[in-house]
Amino acid sequence: MCKGIICGLTAKRTVLRIVLVFGLLIPILVMSARYFEPQHGAGIGSLETARGQSSFSAHTVLPSTTRHKPGCAPAPLELFSNPDTSFRENLGLFVEEKVCRTGIKAKIVEIGVWRGDFAEILLQRYHQSIGEYVMIEPAEKLTGSRDPELNRRLKDFPNKFPNTNFTLIDEISTEAVKRFPDEYFDWVYCDGLHTYKGVQDDVSSFWSKVKVGGLFSGHDFSMSRAKARSDPWNTIAPWSGVRGGTEKAGFPGSYKAVVQHARKQGIQVFYTLEGRYGQGMWQLSDTGGYFRNNPSWFMFKHSDNYTSPIPKHNYIYKWDDSRVFRKFVFGTT
Ligand SMILES: C[S@@+](CC[C@H](N)C(=O)[O-])C[C@H]1O[C@@H](n2cnc3c(N)ncnc32)[C@H](O)[C@@H]1O
């Protein structure tokens, strides 16, 4: 209840408050929401489905059985939202942490090895944590020859890293996968056939081969700005960056196959930020001299009884390679 001038003042104050809330606070909130939204080329992009979250820990997505134990340095997920440290070699830190916690050396498979560049970087950095390194590279079977650099490394690796077992499988990934029991690997890295079907085959056939708490990842998860705009699926894909002054096209098939897989599993997809720094791409490495050209995606495998905060979606889609960017239809089963 109010009377006369007192009532007038109270009404004025109320109006003032409303003006303040709508005129100032709401625009501020909207602006901060936009700031935290993943932008193409912005450093915060690796939190792909966690819009609005500026800080995230690997422990948010790892099952409790795989969390940090005292004495083992935790691998901070934040590394991957900082452009200076967001590169694929650092994914090995998750494996290193797991090996420290379990006391069991890691089994890693790289699908598509080419010259063995990434294998060499990982072995240089993490060989003490790697018990087995499987390389799937069908070049010889498919073309009759393998890159000479890989042949050299295949001879060199066992001498340089005597405590790691090496296997080279000269078969395509969908054949090679049959050799392994479920939950065999601590880390699967997909970098073979980069078409939509190729990546889809790899993520669907190798998913069961990853241990619970293991790392599942792969290369080339990015999009040019123009292509990102042309298809709603691609709008929050990481930016491909430029090379020689021209924007790189990216990998819509790889992006979609990975995102679909993650949605189906109800899993968060993260990604690294390589590839968008022009000339500086050469310098963004603490292993020195390696050209880093595109982002890698990664996710963690959680146990069946872990309740993911991310709803599961089985997207219906039509895929037509002649109109790759138009035929992807949103919907859920
Ligand atoms: C981009 S390169 C791999 C680069 C390597 N991972 C690195 O980062 O140093 C892709 C490789 O995948 C291989 N590849 C192509 N089709 C494949 C398939 N179906 N299964 C496995 N590997 C395949 C190619 O022979 C090629 O050497």
Mean pLDDT: 75
The major pleated sheet works out as: 7 strands, mixed
Radius of gyration, in angstroms, nearest whole number:
23 Å
| Uncertain ranges | 1-7, 26-69, 278-288, 316-333
Number of strands: 9
Helix content: 25-40%
The figure for the number of domains is 1
Q: Which term fits the overall shape?
A: globular
Run of helices and strands:
HHHEHEHHEHEHEHEEHEE
Treating each run of at least 4 consecutive H or I residues as one helix, how many helices?
10
CATH fold field value: Rossmann fold
Bound molecules: S-adenosylmethionine
- Any idea what the CATH architecture is? 3-Layer(aba) Sandwich
User: What fraction strand?
Assistant: 5-15%
What strand order characterises the main sheet? 3-2-1-4-5-9-8
* Amino- and carboxy-terminal Cα gap: 56 Å
Highest CATH level, the class: Alpha Beta
Can you say what the CATH homologous superfamily is? Vaccinia Virus protein VP39
> Which structural class do you get from the secondary structure elements?
alpha/beta
